[in-house]
Each structure stands twice: as C-alpha cells, then as structure tokens.
Amino acid sequence: MAGETVAEHRIAMALLGLLNVKAFDRISITEITEKAAVSRVSYYRHFSSKEDILLRHSSYILDGIVDDLKSGKLCSGSEFWQRLFTELSDTNLTINMSKAGLEDEFFSIFESRMEIVFTEILGIDVTVKMNLVFMEFVIGGLIALLNKVNAIKQENNCRRCGFIPPYCRRTVCSVQPMIMYQEQN
C-alpha cells in the first residue's frame, strides 16, 4: 500500500490473519510479531498498539486508492468502486475494524478520503450547501452499504464460534450457504 513499509504491511497482514481465528482482545503482540516474522522492537518502531495497526493500515489502503485515482491509474468510476470494495473485502477490513471496536474511527477515515475524491478529483465545491448535502448523502450510502456487506459476511460465519469456516473451532462448521440478498428482505 502507498506509504506502508514492508514491516508495517507484514504486521498488518499478521493481525488481520489472526483476527480470523481469535478475538481482537485475545491477540497478543507476541503472536503478531511471530506471525509477521518481525521483532518486538520493529513492532514498536512502527506501531503503538493493535488499534494503531488497523487504523494506519486502513489509511494506507484508502490513500493508495485515492492516489491511484489522482494519478489516472484508475480511469473510471467503475474501476474506482471495484478497487475500493475489493480492497475492503479481501482483508475483511471493515469487519475486522468492527471486531476491534474501531468502526467509528474507520468510517471517519473513510469519510475524509471520500471528501478528497469529491473535492480534489471530481472538483465538487463543497462550500455550496447542495453539493455538501449530495456528498454527505453519497458517503452515508457507502457506509450503509459497507455495513450491509459486513452483516452478510458475518452471517456466514460459524454460528457457534463466530469465525469463518476454515478457522471454525468445530469439526463440522454450522455455516449455512449464503442466502441471496433479495431473499433476506
């Protein structure tokens, strides 16, 4: 990701991987450093806490997308949206932020990056009240969509242990096949 060092990325990926098998508050710094193959010194050189890992990694992901949009690497709106949702779903980032109790902080970071997209890239003047209302409407809709995706993903986790099927603590996972979105409503 843009601006993220190799060590930071390895530490973030280690924490995200551990979140698939353990609750956030049960993950130790030692487990993260062992999985990332970095020293504790390296860990503390880059991060002050587990929360810091998730918040900064989220920023790096979103900044990378915004930078690619600014530089023209993402040439269309559909490429932007596809990249955004791919990045967030590949790491279950929004779910993991929720597990860590950092949902509000994540959506604050998300909103600030979307403001950059609206003002600097799309050139929308947010000092005009109607444009500001439009931007807040779109951002609010995106946040609601991300929350819905999280809810659907979490419904597919094991009903007993709460983890995704490959890491389920039971021999036979109780995950039911995903129900189509239309059938849920």
Give descriptors for this structure.
66% helix; 185 residues; Tetracycline Repressor, domain 2; 9 helices; disordered C terminus; single chain; mainly alpha
Please explain how this structure is put together.
By secondary structure, the chain is mainly alpha-helical. It has one domain: Tetracycline Repressor, domain 2 (Orthogonal Bundle). α1 crosses α2, α1 crosses α4 and α4 runs antiparallel to α5. The longest helix is centred in the C-terminal third of the chain and has 27 residues. It starts with 5 loop residues before the first helix and ends with a helix. The C terminus is likely disordered.
Q: Topology of this structure?
A:
Layout: H1 6-19, H2 29-36, H3 40-46, H4 50-71, H5 77-90, H6 93-99, H7 103-121, H8 129-155, H9 181-184
Helix pairs in contact: 1-2, 1-4, 4-5, 4-7
- Measured between the Cα atoms of the first and last residue, the distance is 37 Å
At CATH level 2, the architecture is: Orthogonal Bundle
Q: Poorly predicted ranges (pLDDT <50, ≥5 residues)?
A: 167-185
Pattern of helices and strands: HHHHHHHHH
Helical residue percent? 55-70%
Rg (CA only): 18 Å
Could you tell me the strand content as a percent range?
Answer: under 5%
At the fourth level of CATH, the homologous superfamily is Tetracycline Repressor, domain 2
**Mean pLDDT over all positions:** 79
What shape does the CA trace take? globular
CATH topology (fold) name:
Tetracycline Repressor, domain 2
Question: Tell me about the biggest sheet?
Answer: none
Number of domains: 1
Kindly report the oligomeric state of this protein.
single chain
Q: Total helix count?
A: 9
Main structural class? mainly alpha
